[in-house]
Amino acid sequence: MADVTAVTVTYNGLPWIERCLESLRGIETIVVDHGSTDGTLELVRERFPEARVIEQGNVGYGGGLNAGFRVSSARYYLPINSDAWVVGDAVEQMVAFADERPDVAVVCPRLRNTDGTLQRSVRGFPTPWRVATEYFFLRKLAPRSSALNSYYAGGFDHDEARQIEWAMGPCFLVRREAADAVGLFDESFFMFWEETDWLYRFHRAGWKTWFLPGAEVVHVGGATHGGRMFGENVKALVGFFEKHHGSREAARVRRLLRSALTVRGVIFPGERGRMYREAARSLR
Questions:
Q1: Using alpha carbons only, what angle is made at residue 144 by residues 138 and 145, rounded to the nearest 5 degrees?
Q2: pLDDT at res. 73
């Protein structure tokens, strides 16, 4: 498909990268590798000689995708995690949908877990209240409520096409024209919240983001970092508020997160509690 360039970033991408690239046959594909030592590059070059490989130092996930975007001439970008793969004609469906709606910057597919169950991906942009409902577990009180669970789009069953604020980003389609207008990924977000920042910039510039359930992508989830970087995640969230809402709002969210994570560190035993306590300390 000449209209689309798929870009995936790898850092020791086995065993999932083969499944990812197999699903992209017929689409121009760029693999940006950040120093794999597990045989990822050897597999890519042997099994997928048509894929273009870019080797560079690790500049973060967004920086890796940007390297691929910059050498593409396609009308659409398809950033995709190395632990995700498209199902059937999902890419063609997203392109057809975007072609009919010139004000749409991003089309997000429905995500599936490897066992076929739904992986909830639609989100609301972070606000202090939404952060509180997440980190103080308030959303557990009414998971289908828009008041207590708007961050996770409570009540939305991921079963209809609709305009959304943003969606978790293991794979989505991006209109090149829109990316040219707002810029590529902000590389100061090394890992986590980079797609939120990008889709928020599209939103503020007047572009739309849509969820398209007929297009499906399987996502392993956590395979690229194994959940080991929780502290980096919360610090990047504070960085999002600093960038878009200023220092005062960022300080407010930092205090909120520290309080919530300190409480979690007391409540939860073992490794999970230690993770929360370390994340709270990292916010000091």
A1: 65
A2: 93
Distance CA 83, CA 222 (A): 9
Q: Where are the beta strands (DSSP E) in 165-255?
A: 166-167, 173-175, 208-219
Enter the tokens of residue 250. 């960022």
Q: Using CA atoms, how far apart are residues 125 and 257, in angstroms rounded to an integer?
A: 16
Phi then psi for 45, rounded to 5 degrees? -70, -30
Listed in sequence order, the residues at least 6 apart from 180 whose beta carbon sits closer than 8 Å to its beta carbon are none
Q: What is the pLDDT of residues 101-158, one digit of tens each?
A: 999 999 999 999 999 999 999 999 999 999 999 999 999 899 898 889 999 998 899 9
The rounded distance, in Å, linking the Cα atoms of 76 and 70 is 12
Are the C-beta atoms of residues 269 and 254 closer than 8 Å to each other? Answer: no
- Helix 194-204, helix 230-267: angle, nearest 10: 110
In tens, the pLDDT along 77-86 reads: 999 999 999 9
